[in-house]
Amino acid sequence: MDQPSFSADLIGRLSGPMTFRVILQPTMAALMALRDGIKDARAGRPPYFWTIFTNTAERGRLLKQGWSAVLRIIVLGVVMDMIYQWKVFGTIHLAELIIVVLVLAFVPYLLLRGPVNRIARRWLRPTPTILPR
Hints:
The protein has six helices and no strands. It is mainly alpha-helical. The chain is elongated and about 75 Å long. The termini are far apart.
């Protein structure tokens, strides 16, 4: 019996049992990015993803902070994907598990936190008031 390919296994997750996690995990990650991006804007911190690439001194701290922010979502994703794999394959494929969880949980957080910061900064910026003469 032929084993399904790695890519076929990943694509197969878009249909079948437990497809709600394909929407649930990125949505939860986006909500965390929204929360943290607004906090960054209020604190005057630079955009998250850009700072990870440009500030090597802060990179480790920022990645750890982002990881801890989405840790619950990642744990939930691991559990859901393990259940899915057990139901569909009867075994656990660790590489697929890691890829699915990172793509569905950490990547959306990483990509959204900076733009949320930029938008929130403009939105939270006090507008200058014109004083009457």
